[in-house]
Amino acid sequence: RKDTHDIVYRTEEEKFRNAAKEIKALHEKGQPVLVGTISVEKSERLSRILTQMGVKHEVLNAKNHEREAFIIAQAGRKGAVTVSTNMAGRGTDILLGGNAEYLTKDKLRRMGKDPENCSKEEWDEVFVPIQEAIRREHEEVVAAGGLFVLGTERH
Question: How far apart are CA 20 and CA 11, in angstroms?
Fold first, then answer.
């Protein structure tokens, strides 16, 4: 863990523009970024800037709480950018490279299967290759510097 000093900007616009530039640079090198904001409005403001810059990202706030656990579980994937309010994602671990269990459940659902009621063979057929891919991605994320956590303000 490396803690750095606060950077103070003259305006909020300048702060968000510079944060977005840093997020884009980290994203381009494959380092996952978790951005903390203090409100839904500020998370959406930063999201608009990132969208204008062409940075693919997820926004995690009170407006999309149904997908909360899945979004936060994948925040450690290579190049992932997750913009989150300070209360979102509680109780879910961020694993570098991704979370094989959540990805397996998602893939099984997309295949039209119920992850909670599938056989062990069906589960393993999907889970094992995902788990192996995540092991490789974990190493890439570690080499890129691990999860970068950027707080937009003190909270």
Answer: 14
